[in-house]
Structure formats: structure tokens, C-alpha cells
Design brief:
Elements lengths: L1 H29 L7 H15 L3 H28 L1 H8 L9 H16 L3 H28 L15 H16 L7 H32 L13 H18 L5 H38 L11 H21 L3 H37 L1
Helix pairs in contact: 2-3, 2-5, 2-11, 2-12, 3-4, 3-5, 5-6, 5-7, 6-7, 7-8, 7-9, 8-9, 9-10, 9-11, 10-11, 11-12
């Protein structure tokens, strides 16, 4: 009799809890940040870095996790676009959020690189087409929003959001350079296109880095201004260097682009050096915020924007070592890959704890 009473209580609790969890999930989908795909970017780039530096078993585990993360985020985004269309439109026309959608492009390309490294060339090429199509829409729509609707300064350059457009652009170069040999007669056209994209990304970086540097060095900076997305300034330089190395390593029968290789070589080295310069300075800003001003270190979804640049720097260092035939950079790549993995573990733990607390608060309220 006691067992029957206990079973009834359990069923009653379950019936009460189910709608609460459904409401919680609906709220999470409704308020999903457009830049949430930074999780897939970070997980995927670490998987690729580990595979390229020889840690294949760990890389496979990270790759499997990333497929789940990427597919899950894609499903949630589709559900949001169907269930909460006004909210996703509000993000699209918001200068502070529209550039977050570029993380979908970058995450798709990172997954595509992972698939190509595992012999899935057709799937990688398909993802490149999807990523490029979305990029083509966002690159003009996003900048139109910035030009016509940014009347209140909503897109603050110091928060690094604009730089995600550069990361997405250069990610198309990297995956495109890898799939060129697998697209047959379209190879030469794609080869020309990825060179153009590399130049576009380089131009964007030149514009944005001037604005960001002017904002940091000539205006007052508050602790609240030092956020994790600021690391994208380093990640954008690193991925530009990585894309340049990809172009140099790609084989082409087009004489014009063979003549361009010395220029790409030089710019690639400079961009890697620029990314390297930013790492100590960004760490210094972090020390100033958390030790001098004693701002607490807490989990935030924006932390994934810190993990990805570190992983990208590891891959960029490895590819530059192949281009420059400078083996010490391999050691730098391995060290940075393990640092990125450690940051990923800490951030993933923060995500799990934060999600658990959110569910508990929701069910108790």
C-alpha cells in the first residue's frame, strides 16, 4: 500500500514537472542567441587541431560531440524560426545581434573541414555551398542593418561582434581550398573565388581593427567592456593567416595566382604575428578586469568566443609551419591545442552547471 502511494506521488510529480520543462525549453529556444554556434566552432576547431597534431582518438571524440552540438543547434534554430519568427526577425534587424548569425557560417565550415579530414569530401563540399549561400545573404543584409538601423550605436565594436563576419569569410576560404580538388571542372572557378574571399576578409579586418584599436586606446574602457568576444580580434587574425596558408598549400594551374603566392606568404606571416601580439595584451586586459577590478569569473555563453580563437591559433600555427618549413611552430601548435582543450573543458563544465541551475530555478519558481 505504501509503495502504491509512493508511485502515485511520483507520477503526480512527473505530470507537474513535464509542462514546466517544456515551458523552460520553449523559453530557451525563444531567447536563443544567434551567436550560439560559437560552441560548434570551438568544439570543431579543437577536434581539427588535435587530429592535425597527432591526438587522433581524442579528436574523434571531440568530432562526435561536435556533430551532436552542431545538429542540435541547427534544429533549435530551425524551431525558433518556425515558432518564434518575430524574435528571430528582431535579432536580424538588431545591429548588436545580426552579426552573431555569421557563427552559423563559420561553424558549418569547421564541421566541413572535419568531415573532409575523415574522407567525406562530398559532404564537405555540400556544407561549403550551404555556408557560402548563407554568407552571401548575411554579408549584405548585416551591413545594411549596420548602415541604416544602427542609430543608437547598438553594435559596439569593442565587443568583437563585427569581427565574426571576418571569421566566417575566411572560414569559406579554408574549406573551399580543401574541397577544390573534389569539384571537378568547377575547381578553377572556386579557386578564384576563395582568393577573392580571402581579400575581402583581409579588407574587413583592416577596417575593423582600426575602429577597434581607436575605441580601446583613445576612449575610456570599463571592466564591462572587456568581454570574451574581444578575443575574436585575435581569432580573426589567426583564421586569416590559416586561410592564407591554405591558399599557398593549394595546387593551381593558374599562373596569375602562382605569382600572387609571395604576397600571400608575406601577409600570412604578418597576420600570424599580429594574432600572436594580441594574446599577451588580451591576457593583460583579463588580469586588469578580474584581479585589479575583482570582477568575478562566471560562465557566460560568450566564453565560447574565447575558446575558438585559441583553437584557431593552434591550427594557424601548424599550417604556417608547413608553409614556412619551420618545425618549432609545431610545438607551439600542440601547446595551444591543449590549452584550447582545457578552456573547452572548463567552459563546457560551466555550461552544464549553468543549465542545471537554470532548470532548477525554473521548476521552483
Amino acid at each position: 500500500m505504501a509503495n502504491s502511494s509512493q508511485d502515485n506521488k511520483t507520477r503526480d510529480a512527473s505530470r507537474r514537472l513535464t509542462p514546466l520543462l517544456y515551458a523552460w525549453l520553449s523559453y530557451q529556444i525563444e531567447t536563443l542567441d544567434p551567436s550560439c554556434f560559437a560552441r560548434a566552432m570551438a568544439t570543431g576547431i579543437i577536434s581539427n587541431a588535435l587530429l592535425l597534431t597527432g591526438s587522433s582518438e581524442l579528436s574523434e571524440a571531440m568530432f562526435a560531440i561536435n556533430l551532436i552540438v552542431y545538429a542540435g543547434l541547427l534544429l533549435l534554430t530551425i524551431m525558433r524560426s518556425l515558432w518564434f519568427r518575430p524574435r528571430i526577425w528582431a535579432d536580424l534587424i538588431d545591429p548588436a545581434h545580426v552579426f552573431g548569425f555569421f557563427t552559423i557560417v563559420a561553424a558549418t565550415d569547421v564541421v566541413g573541414v572535419g568531415l573532409d579530414l575523415r574522407g567525406e569530401a562530398f559532404a564537405a563540399a555540400t556544407l561549403w555551398v550551404c555556408a557560402f549561400s548563407l554568407w552571401l545573404f548575411l554579408i549584405y543584409f548585416g551591413f545594411a542593418v549596420l548602415a541604416f538601423l544602427d542609430t543608437t550605436g547598438g553594435a559596439n565594436v569593442i565587443h568583437g561582434g563585427w569581427l565574426v563576419a571576418i571569421v566566417a569569410t575566411e572560414s569559406l576560404v579554408i574549406l573551399g581550398g580543401i574541397v577544390v580538388p573534389h569539384v571537378g571542372s568547377l575547381g578553377p572557378a572556386l579557386f578564384v573565388l576563395i582568393h577573392l574571399l580571402w581579400g575581402i576578409g583581409l579588407g574587413f579586418y583592416g577596417v575593423f581593427i582600426v575602429l577597434l584599436s581607436y575605441r580601446i586606446f583613445f576612449f575610456a574602457v570599463a571592466p564591462s567592456d572587456i568581454t570574451s568576444p574581444l578575443w575574436i580580434v585575435m581569432g580573426a587574425a589567426a583564421i586569416t593567416a590559416n586561410a592564407g596558408s591554405t591558399l599557398v598549400l593549394a595546387e593551381s594551374d593558374i599562373p596569375y595566382f602562382e605569382l600572387m603566392q609571395p604576397f600571400i606568404d608575406g601577409v600570412t606571416l604578418l597576420m600570424w604575428a599580429w594574432a600572436t601580439w594580441w594574446i599577451p595584451f588580451l591576457l593583460l586586459l583579463g588580469v586588469w578586469k578580474h584581479l585589479v577590478w575583482r570582477a568575478p569569473i562566471t560562465y557566460s555563453p560568450t566564453l565560447w568566443s574565447l575558446v575558438f580563437p585559441v583553437g584557431m591559433y593552434a591550427v594557424a600555427s601548424l599550417r604556417l609551419s608547413l608553409v614556412a618549413h619551420f618545425s618549432p611552430l609545431l610545438s607551439v601548435s600542440r601547446i595551444m591545442a591543449w590549452i584550447a582543450l582545457s578552456a573547452w573543458v572548463a567552459t563546457a563544465a560551466g555550461l552544464i552547471v549553468s543549465t542545471w541551475r537554470s532548470v532548477r530555478r525554473w521548476t521552483r519558481s
